[in-house]
Task: structure prediction
Amino acid sequence: MVKLELGDKLILRKGHPCGTNLWLVERVGADVKLKCTGCGRMVIVERPQLLKRIKKVIR
Ligand SMILES: [Zn+2]
Result:
């Protein structure tokens, strides 16, 4: 079970179309808000969906 905290950085199995594959956790709840460290775009992902997509957590 992966526990996510604010400020964690995530490497996902699939990167953002901008070419970056490093995301910053901005908010944690039932949904998780992520910010792409490459282009600054925010995305909101349901936690169960996100957990399946995480390759690595950097704290
Ligand atoms: Zn991006």
Q: What stands out?
A: The two ends are 16 Å apart (CA to CA). Residues 9-58 form one domain.
